[in-house]
Design brief:
The chain is an alpha/beta fold and 369 residues long. It folds into 2 domains: 198 residues, Alanine racemase (TIM Barrel); 124 residues, Lyase, Ornithine Decarboxylase, Chain A, domain 1. It contains 12 helices and 19 strands. Helix 1 packs across helix 3. The longest helix has 21 residues. It starts with 7 loop residues before the first strand and ends with a strand.
Amino acid sequence: MPKAKETVLVIDLQALEHNYHFLKSNIKPQTKFLAVVKAYAYGSDAMLIAKKLEELGVDYFAVAYTNEGILLREAGIKTPILVLHPQPLNFHQIIEYCLEPSIYAPRILREFIKVASEQQQKSYPVHLKFNTGLNRLGFWEKDVDYIAEQLKGREELRIVSVFSHLAASEDPAERSFSEQQIGSFKKIYANVKAKLHGKPFRHMLNTSGVINYPEAQFEMVRCGIGLYGYANDPKTDALLKPVATLKSVISQIHEIEPDETVGYNRAYTSEGPRVTATLPIGHADGIGRHYGKEAVSVLVNGKEAPIIGNVCMDMMMIDITGIPCQEGDEVIIFGKQLSAEQQAGRAGTISYELIAGISQRVKRKIFGV
């Protein structure tokens, strides 16, 4: 992997391929695989990630919002795309770009039927989302009769799948709750099959679900964070490879005296002679202030250097005392040597927030094509 000369996010497509095959190895050959590429493919590059996964044979993609799906279509992606959280304002675009909406509430169902009817659609593919305990989005079991009534005698829509989402699939302490969710989903699906036409397939498992509840893989699984190298479990993390490595460089080195301060609000005070370095990356690039004040360290020539003081909008300072380095040297914020999971944990957050929050002004570079 080439040395950085500026702040850059390096995306390793070989690592992505490794993670995809690892996750596939944990499901049955006939089970479909949906890759979640929302939020710029968890902060990387949705178009490049989706193109690679399409080459690998993924069955479905999922995005959060309609515009994310449109960007994939405009990039030439042909694989079916599920929009997880569509809004009625975008229903015309969903049909125009052949996207498949999650229908998660009575209002959404009514509005999509209306638009599909206006556009003279027949058997347009949609997915029914049911709430089994996450209490975020989704119909309730009691809504099955309402859905059946709304669809009675209509040909505009075709129910492709029925799905739900586990609330705590990574937490062994919540196993009984997860099993309760799975049981509830099975009951809902039986009711759907009895009252609605067609044979929709089922999906419920995320990355942690694939690892911890293989018996509930049904006809498809949905993997997001695992594709990018993380699994909310140290043992599984060791079998995955981080796809993104965030790098920066040393812009300037300072030698400071005892009791001198560094950065805004004088948030760091030197207890003795120190050597500091300034990096061209800050909270506008996705490294929040909670990573500062020595909560997190970065790697300089293989040595950990703590982030000192408050992270600025476009810069941050690190303590490089005793580390042989010079201006222009590469600095690793997270990646294979120092994972986003480790870094996020030190700052009291999760890998999802760190990797998905990397600003689009940070240049992306592809490795392992």
